[in-house]
Amino acid sequence: MPGTLHTVGMGPGDPELLTLKALRLLRAADVVAYFAKRGRAGHARTVAGEWPRAEAIELRFEYPFTTELAVDDPRYLAEMGAFYEACAARIADHLDAGRDVALLCEGDPFFYGSSMYLFDRLRHDYPHETVPGVTGMSGCWTAASMPITHGDDVLCVLPGTLDEDRLCARLQACDAAVIMKVGRNLPKIRRALRRAGCEERAMYVERGTQSGQRLLPVAGVADDAAPYFSMVLVPGRQRPR
Ligand SMILES: C[S@@+](CC[C@H](N)C(=O)[O-])C[C@H]1O[C@@H](n2cnc3c(N)ncnc32)[C@H](O)[C@@H]1O
Questions:
Q1: pLDDT digits (tens, 9 = 90+) for 147-166
Q2: In a domain, 156, yes or no
Q3: Is 88 domain-assigned?
């Protein structure tokens, strides 16, 4: 019998925001797999802390690059495709040997998670179960004490990698917004917020719920100071009832 692929949402960073189901699977897994940036521990692996069994096999998947190449560069697609293919093959070897694999993912796996690219490659050949996680945006608006939507407010989730015009058009068309993948996109995001008339109420959250958490108005963040692991929140109309 092959093992089962458990794709496990690890939440936004605070280990106490792990679900009971995630914890149970993490403690039982034969193999624990996770992504990490070169030279870093990996967000999802950091959340897992001491929970994996001492004898669990760890598979560390180190990204060949992160923000160095633009997503629309043909090399990005080709090289990331080859990387995900190799990661899926390493997991498949363990599943074939009957070992259960917990593939850790920051936040929720099916919400912009890298683990989806492995899930897509393995889902048809192996038993699988996915555990939802508290999303980064949920952790961030809670950390900022910012109720994000009331009543019939419309929320729009935007990757900061969109161009300025598209960001601005989307911001103008919604009441509340979450802008992910900030990093070096911050100056462009700020211009779009200004043009859409929401810069003043926009809040910047860096490493939400984690030890290095920073919360401040977008206006107070230097252009080159935002890491990739940050987001911008625009609250909705906040109409009282
Ligand atoms: C590839 S997406 C992963 C999203 C994740 N699967 C989730 O459910 O939140 C990475 C982006 O998520 C955002 N993010 C996730 N967790 C965050 C946190 N704790 N603090 C700030 N940003 C976070 C950042 O904008 C980052 O660029």
A1: 999 999 999 999 999 999 99
A2: yes
A3: yes
Please tell me the distance between residue 241's alpha carbon and the centre of ligand 1 in angstroms. 32
Q: How many CB atoms lie within 10 A of CB 119?
A: 20
Are residues 28 and 118 part of one domain?
A: yes
State pLDDT tens for residues 193-238: 999 999 999 999 999 999 999 999 999 999 999 998 999 999 999 8
Pocket of ligand 1 (CB under 6 A): 12-13, 106-108, 111-113, 135-136, 139-140, 180-182, 205, 207-210, 228-231
> CA gyration radius for the chain?
19
For the chain, how many structural domains are there in total? Answer: 2
- Residue 227's domain comprises 137-234
User: pTM for this one?
Assistant: 0.94
In a domain, 239, yes or no: no
Ligand 1 centroid to 192 CA: how many Å? 20
